[in-house]
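Today's session is about reading a structure prediction critically. Students often jump straight to the picture, but the first step is always the sequence itself: look for stretches that repeat, for charged clusters, for runs of hydrophobic residues. Only then move on to the predicted structure, which in these notes is written as discrete structure tokens rather than atom positions. Here is the chain we will use throughout the hour.
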Amino acid sequence: MSTTSSNGLLLTSMSGRHDDMEAGSARTDHSDHEELEHDPDDPFDLDNTKNASAASLRRWRQAALVLNASRRFRYTLDLNKEEHYENRRRMIRAHAQVIRAALLFKLAGEQQIGAFGSSSSTTPATSTGNFDIDLEKLVSMTRNQNMSNLQQLGGVKGVAEKLKSNLEQGIEEDEKEVTDRKNAFGSNTYPKKKGKSFYMFLWEAWQDLTLIILIIAAVTSLALGIKTEGLKEGWLDGGSIAFAVLLVIMVTAVSDYRQSLQFQNLNDEKRNIQLEVMRGGRTVKISIYDVVVGDVIPLRIGDQVPADGVLISGHSLAIDESSMTGESKIVNKDQKSPFLMSGCKVADGVGSMLVTGVGINTEWGLLMASISEDTGEETPLQVRLNGLATFIGIVGLTVALVVLVALLVRYFTGTSQDSNGATQFIKGTTSISDIVDDCVKIFTIAVTIVVVAVPEGLPLAVTLTLAYSMRKMMADKALVRRLSACETMGSATTICSDKTGTLTLNQMTVVETYAGGSKMDVADNPSGLHPKLVALISEGVAQNTTGNIFHPKDGGEVEISGSPTEKAILSWAYKLGMKFDTIRSESAIIHAFPFNSEKKRGGVAVLRGDSEVFIHWKGAAEIVLACCTQFMDSNGTLQPIDDQKEFFRLAIDAMAKNSLRCVAIACRTQELNKVPKEQEDLDKWDLPEDELTLLAIVGIKDPCRPGVREAVRICTSAGVKVRMVTGDNLQTAKAIALECGILSSDTEAVEPTIIEGKVFRTEVAKESSDIIILDDNFASVVKVVRWGRSVYANIQKFIQFQLTVNVAALIINVVAAMSSGDVPLKAVQLLWVNLIMDTLGALALATEPPTDHLMHRTPVGRREPLITNIMWRNLLVQSLYQVAVLLVLNFAGLSVLGLKQDSDHAHAVEVKNTMIFNAFVMCQIFNEFNARKPDEMNVFSGVTKNPLFIAIVGVTFVLQILIVTFLGEFAHTVPLSWQLWLASIVIGLVSWPLAVVGKLIPVPKTPMSIYFKKPFRKYKASRSA
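Below is the predicted structure for this chain, in token form.
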């Protein structure tokens, strides 16, 4: 899997196996590696969820053990919604006019009653104002792609005149102008459907099967209790369980609702694309929401078409319309097919468009308005955690069943006793209501064990940590568009980075120039050049560019826009005396070959007057030089280049070794009768690129970014290889790579370290990317890698913490149930433990910030076990300690705690059970610190950087005091003396030195999962043989 960024970063995970991260090193044995290959029989073994088939996604959902499907699958891809989205798209394509009319009617009604809600940013058209074209006619023409209507209006030029827009300069850069257009033609927004209310999250939290069973059991217990013991005493058992369940539902709903709001904010950030438009003759950056009808928008490879429109001009422009048509076909756009649809992507070429429809007046806007929130997505880690949760859940269900059977057998055989030591069931004596009441209590305990054992919150913890990471990554100048990309960063083994603007400062300037056959003393001083040569250079630069030069009306400093290379060359030519606007008005481009990263050059055919055609080329110096047969000297005379070619080659090499990007400018004349006359033939015409005249070679300097060398060093030490992808001269690439630390010496500058050939199409990275580095700084990539690794590490911390609680709680209840017919941890207490472990534990551990320690390890492999050997060691050490302490307290607690002398045996038993509950919770509170650092001795390092962790631990401790001290009958506890409180804290405190001792125990390199899987694989192999 890979993820790219707008600056040309390509981050790839090539790991079949790598050392583990937060949980220590993995094995290196090759035979073990084979054991971790893809298992086709495992529904949870998905390499890539981004392009996974619907069948494989359904398969793992069906295999998962789920108690609350609406909550568990909330942040996974909604397959039904995906189907609905596709059906809706087809319907809109067929019935756009009717749907738009209905939506406009609805919006008008909402505005009238003043209840526009979240859609208030959507401005429907109110009138056509001072414009000479009707909105409906404009929308109809674009939607139906009606060429005859366009021609009746005078083509794109006629439409622009009616919209009072200039095809070259765009609309006026004036706030009133923009407002008038929004009022006349609508805004480029659509009414968003309101997100789920808090009550919906409450309802979803309520859907948990075990909680429903517990409520039913609580109601039954409540009714029986009131009937047998009266209201005053009888409500306690049933009422306490019901209240505890309602508390769990409330806390779960609050946590999920807050998480939903976070995702809503992140989605708003993702949709707010920034783009360039022409306004008042200058290129300005605006939000996609601020695009209005009449805007002139330049289009380049990778751009999203922000609104409906008509092509003004384009060269080799190809559009991917699959998002609207559903057909994976690239459509070429020209004057015969000039209509552009909002939401599509530019696949190739360049061009400019006139906006004719925005917002709900486009099919894309109608589609966005008709669907609700994102259909979601699942990540590979989420799928794996669902598999782990299913496995743990099956074990938990088995344990609960064993406990249920054991308790029922002991009850009906008369071997179980109540807190007073009396036999609970005596055949023929115990009343039916008492039997039902006791059975309900036994059943309640078994169901509560299922609640604790099935880690319903485990897969959701991924979403929690991803949401937290995405928010923090935004502050680190990284916009995450897909959740799975965060995980990918944790497994990335290679980062392929574009050079310009990422490794370098993106501040390009021409520092060396060869023109007129020699090196110029000053790179941008035209004094030594013939006017004819300067004129040809100026024409070549002005016409063969996607950039622009804007002269402010107030006479201020000129504004130069375009790509960094274009800006540098435009600035250089401007200083030579180039009159940009004059040149472009005196000659016209009749055909263009946009710059291509494969050919590394771009060209235009320019018609001067009615008779003279010049073809201008610009591109990689060594490639353009190879096409030249002559050059123009300082006197404006053409000279054969054969004798001078070696001089120019050496000049290019010298500049390249100084880390300069070398660009050559050349031209040739073309006889007019050899230029195709028909537009169709002209579109297919290949610009001549032989017998060129060399005009100039420029060396462009772009200094390395400060901090890049250190960032590359950190990546290398973290096991992540950094590769530079550039279309530059090989010598330039070597020089920059050495400067940035990607190459340590010239001896490394050989294959396969350096590969020449077709380069990555980094232009399309911007819109196809999963993570966008907003500041184009390679140092930000290191932060993103840290966050990616942090996601995986935090999940492992949570797994270790949760499994420790699971193992200890299950063992203590099973052993106690089998031996004494009673369980020390009651239903309400287990629900509180579940709250600590599931919701609060996830919040505390899933939001741990990344540390430098994460970058001292190699990437984690895709199929590395989630529970590593180091985690198994930590988990077993802590859970065995907890089980040992709790069993001692359970069976010898009366003696150990000095309660045998208590005359009230029932009270002594209650104190003992309260002590077990209190000690168990203290162990979890202190073990939460151990879970923060599974493989570090100092578990407190950086704890102050996570105030949420401290707050949750503090709140848990305070609530435990309140539960034990004040909620006695409700929680089946009694107040403890300060000595017992101290003993409880000491029992929990022992887990800290125990963790240190445990970390001294060596672990094998081969993952434990290998030993678990081998018998199953051998069995499968024997069955299939």
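Discussion point for the tutorial: The radius of gyration is 36 Å.
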